[in-house]
Recover the amino acids of this structure.
């Protein structure tokens, strides 16, 4: 995806959901959150703390709450991004008809209040050693170049790859994921590096 430097550019790039993104953006801008671009997407922060992100994808658009786990979710609008996600919660839509502006604004205000009250889950993975899944370990034991490249990665990048393989439920998915990450490991890049360019 093209690197963007403004929210307007982001919306232009995601023109298939431009009107819908504007609706959500206008709801968020009714608050005192600061708007910026981070990880190539609109981000809304309070006193430097990430509170909300805005995004569009191929078939849906929505907002995510960095510490959404603390939201009451009275309207049952939130989804957990992945099983391993602790704090992040998403609000996904496929059309503007699904957006209840009052409900969205209520969730946004609650997220801001939670942040002001200091409710947040901090990452706890720093310093943790990666537990290498047996499927990846098999590759590392039989391919010296892979082993050297994997060992050269930072602990955080190693954990990303291990979690990626471990989170697959089916063996076929694990094999597919292994094939996908082999060239990335050999290049020395992390699984999520392309999203980290600010």
């Amino acid at each position: 995806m093209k690197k963007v430097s403004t929210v307007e550019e982001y919306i232009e790039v995601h023109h298939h959901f431009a009107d819908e993104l504007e609706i959500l953006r206008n709801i968020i801008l009714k608050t005192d959150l600061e708007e910026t671009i981070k990880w190539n997407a609109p981000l809304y922060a309070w006193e430097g703390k990430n509170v909300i992100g805005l995004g569009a994808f191929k078939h849906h658009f929505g907002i995510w709450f960095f510490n959404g786990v603390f939201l009451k979710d009275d309207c049952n609008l939130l989804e957990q991004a992945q099983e391993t996600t602790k704090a992040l919660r998403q609000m996904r839509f496929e059309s503007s008809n699904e957006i209840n502006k009052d409900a969205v604004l209520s969730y946004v205000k609650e997220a801001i209040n939670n942040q002001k009250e200091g409710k947040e889950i901090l990452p706890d993975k720093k310093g943790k050693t990666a537990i290498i899944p047996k499927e990846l370990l098999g590759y590392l034991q039989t391919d010296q170049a892979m082993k050297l490249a994997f060992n050269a990665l930072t602990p955080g990048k190693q954990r990303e790859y291990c979690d990626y393989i471990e989170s697959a439920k089916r063996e076929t998915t694990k094999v597919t994921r292994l094939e996908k990450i082999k060239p990335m490991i050999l290049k020395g890049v992390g699984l999520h590096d392309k999203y980290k360019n600010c």
About this structure: The chain has two domains: 7-116, 134-190. The first strand starts at residue 34 and ends at 38. DSSP finds seven helices and six strands in the chain.
